[in-house]
Write a structure and sequence with these properties.
The complex is a heterodimer. By secondary structure, chain A is an alpha+beta fold. Chain A contains 15 helices and 37 strands. In chain A, helix 8 (403-421) crosses helix 11 (494-511), helix 10 (479-490) runs antiparallel to helix 11 (494-511) and helix 12 (576-593) runs parallel beside helix 13. Chain B is of the alpha/beta class. Chain B has helices at 16-19, 37-45, 47-54, 65-75, 80-100, 107-126, 132-135, 143-146, 152-172, 177-184, 234-247, 274-299, 312-317; strands at residues 4-7, 33-35, 77-78, 141-142, 189-199, 202-214, 217-224, 255-261, 266-270. In chain B, helix 5 packs across helix 6, helix 5 (80-100) packs parallel to helix 9 (152-172) and helix 11 (234-247) packs across helix 12. The termini of chain B are far apart. Classes of the chains: A alpha+beta, B alpha/beta. Strand 24 (426-432) of chain A pairs parallel with strand 1 of chain B.
Chain lengths: 752, 325
């Protein structure tokens, strides 16, 4: 197997060492943030790689890669000034010393950023970690697509320091903020910045050669650079904005009649400043894309490899400023002891049918396996149907939707669900009128059942319906989607309508607590507990899968709940006491739902990163659950961080007969004794783009990496939403992720 | 087609509560909360402060009596940024209610009362004994004085100066005259407290500084003692509008909202569109959802579920900083 990782190792491998200067900072005592600013200034001004070294009551020093002495240089910013004391004191960082490895990796990365800053054609916005191509590779109307690269360093056990380069796509408008507002296209501007959805609107501020990130505050109608109020900046008085730019940035073309917008560089409205609106461009989020640009961020492995080569050619074989260390010519090809492949499991289906695990691991056998799972499911129905499943599905559909569409949707969906469940399920259609207050009274009186709610795409309507009908599962269908699907029938594309009905039916049966099919899970763990925080940190959630149960037929239990996070300023960190309570609540709910023996081992997945004292909350919950006999006395909680995305974006690829392609589903690479990447999607079913592996860091001791990888991969085989393709996330992770996204969507951002 | 089809007018009503009889709160195990704009602000700023403010002093089962007394005492503390506004608001209410009865207090008298309120509050705080608050309901316990911060006399002289400016402007500025004159007339509401049911477990409470009918419109004025800002307090304005619509039967387009900035002599008018009204109402419900979820911890006295903000600037002004763990 010829597998490759988007990482270049140093030629010197485990024997790498580097002499570096120790530079003392004299003057003001700096905090961590200010010391990082000193390092940034050394990169921006002198083109040097520097990282913080010592900081205690007596010393504050940096490690710097520089040919020349920096002695006597002064750096000043805000309310601090420091002088660099460079006494030609060198130390040697050696990869052989475990304690040096992180410094070595960080310093080499800083030196590479310095090279990118001074020696390449790439540009960056704020972080030095992401670099953009000079020119767009594609433009559609007012949006241009740019390739961008992010590089990061890491220690790969037994191999040395590696540098990964990841290619992505970013979109910016090619028209300025002034263009939108002066030509009456404000609505377009609002759409592109997603301000209606509560986003601030990220802008690119092109100030001559500099590119800065800022946030839109307001457009100053009628105000020009020549008519702003006088201002004083750093003790200097300027007549107006034009005067400021003319004197401060003489090479930047600014005219008195240029329009003005207010922006914030910190994201806080309180420190808004005026800038010429024709220097501002919108950073367009992927959600706002249409047409040709929608798919350009999907890069297939061979194209990705070509783009990575472009990056490496630009930085060269010795990419670290003032270091002679070289990276290897080719990419890292992990040895057999570093890479692994987990087979797809046998899948148990209804009526004792089963789809056997593929005997050989090839893209074709994998593809065939997934198709077989879907085919079997479609033919034999659900593996498990709760005995008390509701025999009526309520359809709430706006009266604007024509009657024949309403009836066709209800009939087709119930027919499919009846087949999948083996129960006669009938529809009950309720039509309603749209109104500004979406309240749905009759359904509230139902004790149980399932509701398919066709509604508009407004978050507040969704929130109202879910809140009022919180005791019922709800399948939401957007009215626009329904009409589009109906048009498919009108245009003779009945298959598309059938696919739509099929996908809806799969979702509904899962919401009705059916289990479509059951991947044969490993016995390494009895259950998986997932903890996650939603985007913008307004909500967190806990989900649970219990796969070890009493009884003749294995029926896993799935529970997934979201909760408010009042301390959203804490970002990712969940309050330990709340977390403890919610974990216990979730297990209690599971116990109400099914009988299971005390669990012996649970894989605790922190989606993202374990923060603050969360582990105390988890441990307190474990203790409580042991006391409550939900867990066995010696029950293990193996804790992992699961990074769906990370700064160290690693991609795996493989040479096939027809060229470079994705690795197979279940392929992984071990980075060190605690860290691995696992590609749950891959060559079998992924047709567009490159598989995006999960990065897993084990946080508990005595954990078998391969057991964890196997359990995660198998849990991803609960791919009920699209059985014919591999699913990236383990089911409980996906369930919770989807719920948190829904909650965030429903959240109405009101300031003040 | 199998099954049934029912044609219903589902959204005919204006509020859910009008269509379904409300459940008795006492029968429900779910805690209840009283949502207010300031309560929301406290929760957003610091969940731990929110706990102390709304639950801490009530938890007989948790904490020693001494700790509970401390929390109850600290809840009464006002800092320099709050006390001036409180004094000016209460004097404006006094002035308007007396004027409605036919007595016009002169400006100097109001300023003297403001000054005395501050100076007496300093003495009161310096000599405070437990239970004194019952004897002096109109005085304020001052945080800076209680904490014996340096130069608190200077700090509170600045507060006196500021209240004097605010009252000067209230009394004399032409921009506020239409509001002051309308507020002096009988029938105008001055600092009207209200409570509105949001759902089975939540009430929305608020206090409209000044409200009156004028030319077929219901005018609501909110006195602001800080600087003019562009901060969006549409949720607060919504509660006033909602109160007006609920109690005065006034349609949305007949409600006029003003923010009167006493320090900067400026009045700003605000209008809520139907959509803004609706969206803010949803936002209040969502905010109340958070409070309801946290009530579970609050009512058990489980302070640790309320994360302290640990932000220097906020903590410096917090009356509970000494007990915050």
């Amino acid at each position: 197997m010829n597998m490759e990782v988007n990482i270049k190792l140093l030629e010197t491998g485990k024997h790498t060492s580097q002499d570096v200067r120790v530079v003392q900072l004299k003057g003001d005592r700096l905090n961590d943030e200010a010391i990082q600013r000193v390092c940034s200034n050394l990169r921006n001004i002198y083109g040097l790689g520097a990282i913080p070294y010592q900081r205690d009551s007596e010393n504050q020093s940096l490690l710097v890669l520089s040919k020349k002495s920096l002695h006597g240089s002064k750096l000043k910013e805000g309310n601090w000034v420091v002088e660099l004391e460079d006494t030609e004191d060198f130390i040697t960082l050696s990869y052989r010393n475990l304690s040096d490895r992180k410094w070595l990796a960080d310093l080499l990365m800083a030196a590479m950023y310095a090279r990118l800053e001074k020696g390449t054609r790439f540009w960056r916005m704020d972080t030095p970690k992401i670099w953009y191509e000079e020119t767009p590779f594609k433009t559609d109307r007012d949006i241009s697509a740019y390739r961008r690269y992010s590089a990061s360093s890491m220690d790969i056990e037994g191999e040395g320091i590696g540098i990964s380069v990841h290619v992505e796509t970013a979109f910016f408008t090619n028209r300025s903020v002034q263009d939108y507002f002066s030509s009456g296209r404000e609505e377009r501007f609002m759409k592109l910045t997603s301000r209606q959805e509560g986003s601030k609107g990220t802008l690119l501020y092109r100030l001559g050669e500099k590119h800065l990130k800022c946030y839109f505050v307001t457009y100053c109608q009628g105000v020009t650079c020549g008519t702003t109020q006088p201002m004083t900046i750093e003790g200097e008085r300027y007549e107006n904005l034009f005067d400021y730019y003319r004197r401060k940035y003489p090479s930047v073309p600014v005219a008195p009649e240029d329009r003005v917008a207010k922006v914030s560089f910190s994201g806080s409205m309180s420190d808004a400043v005026s800038v010429p609106a024709n220097m501002l461009y919108v950073r367009v989020m992927n959600d706002a894309l249409t047409g040709e640009l929608k798919q350009v961020d999907k890069i297939i492995p061979s194209e990705r490899a070509d783009l990575e080569d472009i990056f490496w050619r630009e930085v060269g074989a010795t990419p670290f400023q003032y270091s002679t260390l070289k990276v290897q010519r080719g990419y890292w090809k992990p040895d057999t002891n570093k890479r692994f492949h987990i087979s797809l499991p046998t899948v148990l289906c209804n009526k004792d049918n089963r789809v056997a695990a593929p005997a050989k691991a090839t893209p074709d056998t994998h593809n065939n396996h997934f198709r077989q799972v879907k085919h079997t499911f479609d033919n034999v129905g659900c593996y498990h149907v709760p005995p008390g499943i509701s025999r009526v599905i309520h359809f709430a559909i706006p009266d604007q939707v024509p009657e024949k569409i309403r009836e066709r949707l209800a009939d087709d969906l119930c027919k499919k669900i009846s087949f999948l469940t083996g129960k006669e399920i009938t529809p009950e259609i309720l039509t309603y009128r749209y109104s500004k207050l979406e309240v749905f009274v009759p359904l509230k009186s139902l004790q149980s059942g399932m509701v398919v709610f066709v509604m508009n795409e407004e978050p507040e309507a969704y929130y109202e319906v879910e809140k009022e009908l919180k005791h019922l599962p709800i399948k939401r269908i957007a009215d626009a989607t329904l009409i589009t699907q109906w048009e498919n029938i009108q245009h003779g594309k009945e298959r598309r309508w059938n696919s739509f009905i099929e996908l809806c039916a799969y979702d509904v049966v899962v919401q009705m607590q059916c289990i479509p099919y059951l991947p044969d899970l490993t016995t390494s763990y009895d259950g998986m507990l997932v903890i996650d925080v939603g985007e913008k940190a307004k909500f967190f959630g806990v989900s649970l899968m219990i796969n070890r149960q009493e009884g003749r037929k294995a029926i896993p239990v799935f529970i997934s709940n979201t909760h408010h996070k009042p301390d959203s300023k804490e970002k990712e960190r969940i309050n330990a006491r709340q977390l403890e309570r919610r974990i216990v609540d979730t297990f209690n709910e599971a116990r109400m739902k099914a009988r299971f023996a005390a669990l012996r081992s649970v894989l605790v997945v922190r989606d993202g990163k374990l923060c603050g004292d969360e582990n105390q909350g988890i441990e307190a919950a474990r203790q409580f659950l042991i006391q409550a006999c939900v867990l066995a006395q010696d029950a293990r909680f193996d804790l992992i961080d699961l990074h769906k995305t990370s700064q160290k974006e690693i991609r795996l690829s493989q040479s096939w007969n027809d060229g470079i392609g994705n690795v197979l589903e279940g392929t992984g690479v071990i980075l060190d004794s605690k860290t691995f990447v696992l590609s749950t999607t891959g060559a079998g079913t992924l047709r567009i783009g490159t598989a995006h592996p999960l990065l897993v860091e084990v946080k508990s001791g005595n954990v078998q990496l391969l057991d964890v990888a196997e359990y995660l991969h198998q849990a991803a085989q609960f791919n009920f939403g699209s059985p014919q393709v591999a699913q990236r996330l383990p089911f409980p992770v996906k369930e919770l992720d989807d719920k948190l996204k829904t909650k965030q969507f429903q959240h109405i951002p009101v300031r003040g | 087609m199998k099954g049934g089809s029912i044609q219903m007018d589902l959204f005919g009503g204006t509020l859910f509560k009008e269509e379904m009889p409300p459940k008795k709160v006492a029968q429900s195990p779910t805690p209840s909360v009283e949502w207010s704009f300031s309560r929301r602000g406290t929760l957003e700023t610091c969940p731990r402060k929110y706990y102390y403010q709304y639950y801490g002093g009530k938890q007989e089962k948790r904490g020693s009596p001494k700790e509970l007394d401390s929390i109850r005492f600290m809840k009464m503390l006002s800092n320099q940024h709050l006390v001036g506004g409180k004094i000016v608001h209460s004097l404006i209410r006094l002035f308007l209610t007396k004027a409605q009865e036919g007595t016009i207090y002169p400006l100097d008298f109001l300023k003297k009362m403001a000054r005395e309120s501050v100076t007496n509050s300093i003495v009161y705080t310096e000599n405070y004994q437990q239970g004194d608050e019952k004897k002096n309901p109109y005085l304020h316990l001052l945080q800076e004085v209680f904490e014996e911060r340096e130069n608190y006399e200077v700090t509170y002289q600045e507060v006196i100066d500021k209240t004097s400016t605010l009252l000067d402007n209230f009394y004399q500025s032409e921009v506020f005259k239409p509001f002051v004159e309308a507020g002096k007339k009988p029938g105008a509401f001055a600092e009207k407290k209200f409570k509105l049911p949001l759902d089975d477990h939540t009430k929305v409470s608020g206090e409209a500084d000044l409200a009156f009918w004028q030319d077929g419109h219901f005018v609501i004025c909110d006195w602001k003692t800080g600087k003019v800002d562009d901060g969006n307090d549409s949720m607060q304005l919504l509660t006033y509008t909602w109160w007006a619509m609920d109690t005065q039967n006034v349609p949305l387009d007949k409600v006029k909202l003003y923010k009167a900035y006493l320090l900067d002599n400026e009045v700003k008018e605000f209008r809520l569109s139907e959509r803004e009204f609706y969206m803010n109402k949803i936002a209040i419900r969502q905010s109340a959802d958070v409070m309801l979820e946290m009530a579970e911890f609050g009512e058990e006295g489980d302070w640790s579920a309320f994360t302290p903000c640990n932000q220097q600037k906020i903590c410096a002004l917090c009356p509970f900083q000494k007990i915050c763990q």
